[in-house]
# Entry
Amino acid sequence: MAEIGMFDSGNGGRTTLEAVRRRLPEVEIEYVADLKNCPYGEKSAAELLEITSRVTQGLIARGAKIVVIACNTATTRCIRALREKFPDVVFIGTEPALRLAKRTGAQRIVLLATPSTVASEQVDRLIRQNRLEKQVKLIPCAGLAEAVEAGIEVQRGEARLVRTEKAERCLMKILAKMPEGEREAMEVVVLGCTHYVWIAEQIQKWFPKARMLDGNEGVARRVESVWEKIKNGGKG
Ligand code: DGL
# Structure
């Protein structure tokens, strides 16, 4: 029985899992890599809600009181509906780190995310709330999450990135269209998909002067604080 459950369409979210484990090393966390439904980014909204509801039900049946959606795509598209469907658990989602990007004061920000996340209302809202309309360039990265997934190997619960060729080819297809001068002027890259965190080093080569940001630390902080509240008898 694990009181914290976490899921993603695959092993991308394991970087989130590591960030949470660093804060709560004693707590058992169940991680579901929903590989049979990977990629989430290409499912319809209804289909994705059905899939993520099923995963959530399983986690709850095995004791989860907190469900962490270690996936930007599922968060931006389903978290609201999941909260309504399962009011007794606390959902913590992963959103592209645009708020953090704003705080850096950067004027040139690039957001890399799945086509579905890029097109979501939530990303639009985050951009407007943080007044980043003029600073952010959105790049939908079709196929990149699967290409990263193909290079991850999991043995006894430990994941490692063992191959990056596919992901590098995919990055080339997506980023070679962007003029070199524009890439070099970027100050911040927001890794808006948990899979991309695995290939931050490869992405950095395309944006040599930029700082890479992801939402993992923010999610981990939130999980820790909700966990403390639940442990102290609160609702989270
Ligand atoms: N790791 C997921 C995310 O953060 C990948 C999405 C997918 O499976 O398409 O968006």
Q: What stands out?
A: The chain is about 45% helix and 20% strand. The first strand starts at residue 4 and ends at 8. Residues 8-9, 12-13, 38-41, 71-73, 114, 117, 145, 193-195 surround D-glutamic acid (CB under 6 Å). The chain has two domains: 4-94+216-231, 98-213.
